[in-house]
Design brief:
479 residues; 43% helix; mainly alpha; 9% strand; 19 helices
């Protein structure tokens, strides 16, 4: 029988779900779904110091919002729960003691001071297996006296441990370089080193997809699988997502989380699409891929071994592509809160604005900036009039604008067609090109290099009074 693929995402609830984490979750999800498998969410909250209240809820909500619907997890249950590590303490306790019985681990009663004394000149510490040689009687004695202990992994001192990572190939370490890490702390809490193995085994995970920070410690985990006689999962370690060549993405340096991006006005389809490309590409190098296409096309062959760089410009571009694909109604619905947040709140026909903006913006959050000029008109740099292609500059604007003013003053029907006709006529009358007239007018009444529409559209939106007022003002600024 073909085995069902089971992958998991195992975040620690330390705050928000960062882009690198979501990328890992996405690949685990896509890989499982491509083959009709299951995707599981497990919360790794054994490190009480790093625990952040509410973080688990953010993780669950983010995954669901992004479409990564997990088949098993803390809030949806499943056959192998609980899916929160702090609720599984009894399980780790039982397996850690089993591991002692079969020789894969041992109790260590060493004091902090003794452990400190094991540090070498560089400050590194490797446990010297001191407690491995305690006799049964000594151990019983200590237990009777209630001496606290940790449980350490008993790593062979000789030989080599290796495994085959599906992305990085053969990974090998010498056992003598591995430390007898703590598996269970004296308060009964497991460390990651132990909990990840027990859980991945009990939760029937057969493909472990996670960050490369675990690439070289995986041989150690495999020794635990081997000691128990459990089948090892297959591993795919993913390179990190970086801000630049040297730095990982990090919230501390202001890099955005998924939720930040959504709050900034990015569309989730675009964000998920972009995140999928942070370390993977389809055979044909296509960049715009729907969620369904991602599920169909995702493959291990397309994964990259090099770190990916998060490029917000590229996300903006991709988002723009998605914005243009929205139905006008949907775009309008999504744009509404941004008008409300802008200076034009309640003053203009939002539908007209939406019609103009959908073809021009990359993210919804650009909307206030794009429309604020309708209400806000501040002195601007006259260099804005310069446009080589049109042979226009401040001087030319100064010549053209008085004529424009005159012809618009006499215009009573302020429709776009009329405006257009009047401006063309004005251009012909003074021997200028229509493009030159339109350009000067648009700059004069908006003070912006790019606006959601051309001169006539902007004039119509502003209305006659304001258009004329602004032309006069701009002429004064040119004087
Ligand atoms: N809790 C670990 C982390 O957040 C998970 C590593 C894994 O997927 O095994 O880095």
């Amino acid at each position: 029988m073909k085995e069902t693929i089971r992958t998991r995402f195992a975040p620690s609830p330390t705050g928000y779900l960062h882009i690198g984490g979501l990328r890992t979750a996405l690949y685990a999800y896509l890989f499982a779904k491509k083959y009709g498998g299951k995707f599981i969410l497990r919360i790794e909250d054994t490190d009480a110091e790093r625990y952040v209240e509410g973080a688990t809820e953010i993780i669950c909500q983010t995954l669901k919002d992004a479409g990564l619907i997990y088949d098993e997890g803390p809030d949806v249950g499943g056959d192998y729960g609980p899916y929160v590590q702090s609720q599984r303490k009894h399980i780790y306790y039982e397996y850690a003691h089993k591991l002692i019985e079969i020789g894969g681990a041992y109790r260590c009663f060493c004091s902090k001071e003794r452990l400190e004394s094991l540090r070498d000149e560089s400050g590194a510490r490797k446990y010297d297996k001191h407690c491995l040689s305690l006799s049964e009687r000594e151990i019983e004695e200590k237990l009777r006296h209630g001496e606290p202990y940790v449980i350490r992994q008993n790593i062979p001192t000789e030989g080599v441990s290796s495994y085959y990572d599906l992305l990085f190939g053969k990974i090998e370490v010498e056992n003598k370089d591995l430390d007898d890490n703590v598996l269970l702390k004296s308060d009964g809490m497991p460390t990651y080193n132990f909990a990840n193995v027990v859980d991945d085994h009990l939760m029937r995970t057969n493909y472990v997809i996670r960050g490369t920070e675990y690439l070289s410690s995986t041989p150690k985990y495999n020794l635990i699988y081997d000691a128990f006689g459990w089948e090892r999962p297959k591993y795919i370690h993913l390179p990190p997502v970086m801000r630049d060549a040297q730095h990982k993405l990090s919230k501390r340096f202001g890099d955005p989380s998924y939720n930040d991006l959504i709050a900034e006005g990015f569309l989730k389809e675009a964000v998920v699409n972009y995140i999928a490309l942070l370390g993977w590409s389809p055979k044909d190098d296509r960049e715009k891929l729907s969620f369904e296409e991602l599920k169909e096309l995702f493959s291990l062959e397309g994964l990259s071994k090099s770190p990916a760089i998060f490029d917000k410009r590229k996300l903006m571009w991709l988002n723009g592509e998605y914005v243009r694909e929205l139905s006008p109604e949907r775009f309008h619905e999504l744009a509404l809160p941004y008008y409300e947040k802008s200076k034009v709140k309640g003053l203009y026909d939002y539908k007209i604005l939406s019609r103009l903006l959908q073809t021009r913006i990359e993210t919804l959050s650009q909307i206030p900036d794009m429309v604020n000029f309708l209400e806000e008109f501040d002195r601007f740099d006259p260099a804005l009039y310069r446009r080589d292609k049109l042979k226009v500059d401040e001087q030319k604007a100064k010549e053209i604008l008085p004529h424009v003013l005159k012809s618009l003053e006499g215009l009573s029907d302020w429709s776009e067609e009329n405006l257009h006709a009047a401006l063309s006529e004005c251009a012909a009358g003074i021997g200028a090109k229509a493009g030159q007239v339109m350009w000067c007018l648009r700059i004069a009444i908006t003070g912006k290099e790019s606006t959601p529409g051309g001169a006539t559209e902007m004039a119509r939106l502003l209305g006659k009074d304001r258009t004329l007022q602004r032309i006069r003002q701009s002429l004064r600024w040119l004087a």
